[in-house]
């Protein structure tokens, strides 16, 4: 598909005077779970029951039926939401985005999709009906028939209203507003806006590409380059804009990232438009690799753990004070410099600079996930603090809790158990125990903020960042990354 066709103005829909289909009424797919006397969950779609398999025992289902329901709801919603290729741009989340996502999950539970799993396209529902604004009841048919006959288009619906059969979950109910139809942005206007906020120069005048490719994404690749002025290495992400479904996201994320600058973030440096439809985003590149290499191959001292926590918390505090939630704090997303520099990555344009697919799952990375992400109770900035606490467990144990468990069971254990067991707990100092306690509070109100943790006495025990350098070198040698 050409760049022009991707972003060209859509033709306004033809206006008709025929009946318009309204929101579905008397349609309820909601899932209600009950427990029988012998501990069997009733009310779950058969596809969800198949997903449970042996991951959640009957005793656990009997003890925590609501947790099982929420875990399966979250898992299936996440699979549906993340279906398709991973985008090269990760949305910068605010509390508004979190609240909107929670509403979408509630709607999902009332949709036909909630009765499907990634393993099955079969639905457990019987036929449902939709009631039009004029009171006409419309039985449902197979969605394929709808697609084949284009019945969801307004004109077709109006012409065949008396004999129309539709599926409730396949209809787009909201029409574009008059303003949207009249003032939709053209690809020329879009490119004009992009160029206004990008460097108008030639990137080859500023950077010299090296032979090292850092990875590839759904719509481009990432490669290393040298800043001609400073001699420092940078990462350049080449984004094919014709493969970006949401052009507004490109604009908004560039504007946000240009204003985000902190010593503990992998910073956005520059952006260029290349060959009209490619966007080159220049970011900092750290040569020490991810913290994951250090935690899996070496044993960190408490002073080194404190040093990493102090640097990460400064980045988290910076984001939180600007209304942004990271949502994926873990060792994979903490990058190190050979001098011990610590920077947080994987948000905005920094997503997938150096990926670690082995530890990624269909529902994101549940092992670092706070319980309230699944239960949706008081879900906000403090999810990053819980994830920091789990990352401390990584630094102590070499991996997060439940890493060897499949995602559904891991989600269940996180939600049902709350705070995980820490094998080396008895070997921790009182200050470290207190710090972990402040992070891993299931009650969100009792959990510390980033700014409060920065004042914690444990961080006063931190070692110099250069103390991390021997660990980085050792990990590189073991992993043959030198």
UniProtKB/TrEMBL annotation:
Gene Ontology MF term list: ATP binding; metal ion binding; protein serine/threonine kinase activity
Cofactor (UniProt): Mg(2+)
Keywords from the UniProt entry: ATP-binding, Kinase, Magnesium, Metal-binding, Nucleotide-binding, Transferase
Enzyme type, top EC level: transferase
Pfam families, per database record: PBD (PF00786), Pkinase (PF00069)
Composition bias, Basic and acidic residues: 112-131
Annotated EC: 2.7.11.1
InterPro entries with a match to the protein in the record: CRIB_dom, CRIB_dom_sf, Kinase-like_dom_sf, PAK3-like, Prot_kinase_dom, Protein_kinase_ATP_BS
Domain of life: Eukaryota
CRIB domain boundaries: 21-34
Binding site for ATP: 237
Disordered as annotated region, ranges: 111-142
Protein kinase domain segment(s): 208-459
Glycoprotein in keyword set: no
Record bears the keyword Cytoplasm: no
PROSITE patterns per record: CRIB, PROTEIN_KINASE_ATP, PROTEIN_KINASE_DOM
PANTHER family: NON-SPECIFIC SERINE_THREONINE PROTEIN KINASE, SERINE/THREONINE-PROTEIN KINASE SAMKA-RELATED-RELATED
UniProt name for this protein: non-specific serine/threonine protein kinase
Species of the source: Sitophilus oryzae (Rice weevil)
């Amino acid at each position: 598909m050409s760049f022009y066709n991707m972003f060209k103005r859509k033709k306004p829909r033809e206006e008709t005077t025929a009946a318009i289909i309204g929101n579905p009424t008397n349609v309820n797919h909601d899932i209600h779970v009950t427990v029988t006397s012998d501990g069997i969950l009733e009310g779950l779609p058969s596809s969800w029951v198949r997903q449970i398999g042996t991951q959640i025992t009957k005793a656990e289902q009997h003890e925590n039926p609501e947790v099982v329901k929420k875990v399966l709801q979250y898992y299936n919603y996440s699979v549906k939401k993340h279906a398709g290729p991973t985008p090269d741009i990760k949305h910068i989340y605010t509390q508004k985005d979190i609240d909107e996502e929670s509403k979408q999950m509630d709607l999902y539970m009332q949709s036909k999709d909630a009765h499907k799993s990634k393993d099955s396209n079969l639905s457990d529902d019987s036929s449902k009906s939709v009631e039009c604004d004029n009171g006409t009841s419309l039985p449902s048919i197979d969605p394929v028939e709808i697609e084949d006959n284009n019945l969801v288009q307004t004109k077709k619906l109006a012409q065949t209203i008396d004999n129309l059969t539709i599926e409730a979950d396949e209809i787009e109910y909201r029409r574009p507003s008059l303003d949207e139809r009249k003032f939709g942005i053209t690809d020329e206007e879009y490119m004009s806006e992009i160029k206004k906020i990008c460097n108008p120069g030639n990137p080859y005048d500023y950077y010299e590409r090296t032979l090292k490719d850092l990875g590839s994404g759904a719509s481009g690749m990432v490669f290393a380059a040298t800043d001609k002025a400073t001699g420092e290495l940078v990462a350049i992400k080449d984004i094919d804009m014709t493969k970006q479904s949401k052009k507004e996201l490109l604009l908004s994320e560039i504007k946000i990232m240009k204003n985000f600058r902190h010593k503990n973030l992998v910073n956005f440096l520059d952006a260029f438009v290349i060959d009209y439809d490619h966007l080159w985003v220049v970011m900092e590149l750290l040569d020490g690799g991810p913290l994951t290499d250090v935690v899996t191959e070496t044993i960190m001292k408490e002073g080194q753990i404190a040093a990493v926590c102090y640097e990460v918390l400064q980045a988290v505090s910076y984001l939180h004070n600007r209304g942004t939630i990271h949502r994926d704090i873990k060792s994979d997303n903490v990058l190190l410099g050979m001098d011990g520099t610590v920077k947080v990555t994987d948000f905005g344009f920094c997503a997938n600079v150096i990926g670690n697919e082995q530890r990624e799952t269909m529902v994101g990375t549940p092992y670092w996930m706070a319980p309230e992400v699944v239960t949706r109770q008081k879900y906000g900035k403090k999810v990053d603090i819980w994830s920091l606490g789990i990352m401390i467990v990584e630094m102590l144990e070499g991996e997060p809790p439940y890493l060897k468990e499949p995602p559904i069971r891991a989600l269940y254990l996180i939600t049902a158990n709350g705070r995980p067991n820490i094998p080396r707990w008895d070997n921790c100092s009182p200050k470290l125990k207190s710090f972990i306690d402040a992070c891993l509070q299931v009650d969100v109100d009792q959990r510390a903020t980033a700014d409060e943790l920065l004042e914690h006495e444990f961080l006063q025990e931190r070692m110099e960042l250069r103390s991390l350098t021997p660990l980085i070198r050792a990990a590189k040698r073991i992993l043959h990354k030198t």
